[in-house]
Design goal:
Helices cover 31% and strands 19% of the residues. The protein is of the alpha/beta class. The protein folds into two domains: 108 residues, Enolase-like, domain 1; 155 residues, Rossmann fold, CATH 3.40.50.11590. A seven-stranded mixed sheet has the order 6-5-4-7-8-9-10. A three-stranded antiparallel sheet has the order 1-2-3.
Length: 285
Amino acid sequence: MLNRVSSALMTVLSDLVDLILAIGNGRELPPVAAMYKPPPARPPERPKKFGVIVLDDDSCGFFYAGLDNTLSQLAACDPHQFTGAAPLDLVRNCLESDPLAKAVGLGVLNALSQHLLSVSGFRLDRTGDPMGHLDLAGAQHVGMVGFFPPLVAALADHPASLTIIEKDPQFQDWPGRFLVTEETRRIQDCDRVLITGSTLMNDTLDDVLSHCNPASQIALVGPTASCLPDPIFERGIDVVGSATVSDLPLLVDLLQTGEPWRAGTAKYCIARSQYPGIRQLMADS
């Protein structure tokens, strides 16, 4: 059942920052080794919107650069300024208003999350699929927060209704047997909900969850959802589906050339029912 957050000051993102700081303080953590920003788009290409933070132990975290003026700030910044930085200092920037500081901070938070999951001995399930965990075969009405073309295509022949919450005007007239709307309240009638990880970046995940039916099954998906899932599961989300880096040299090459970087990553799922919590994992390691 979905848990409501009573305080407007407590969000998934602020709880994630608090969790990382609490676990990381007093622990030796790898510094930032590199920041790779998305390359400039060559017209008529759409802008590339994902970058990656690499820590000194090769733990990686993706960040989303598609909000506000993050891309223009990235284009003007020297990525070497982050090399050697203490990761917890950058994680605190997740709660800042500056778009670039927030984006890089979330990338570092995700990289530290991958580091902590690794040193705790938790094995990521690279065989699962978040859609499989949601039992879509029995769905009557699927909600999607964020337009995911591959998932939309996968649901094309599914008998369930599909409602997509998307503010980007380029998707408003996308052809298909589904409704595209900006009204988040429309997901209240959905029994399965897929939410983009970029809701962490713009800190709207709690608002989205407030519109979900408490009985619905919910997944948070996308590269930027590679954080510790504890605060996410505490709010009743059933599964997190994200990506971890499987071939760092290949990923860096693909990022820098503007090519699709899926070949340098591996998808994974963490189900709430199979996750004991990072504090328990660290205590047992």
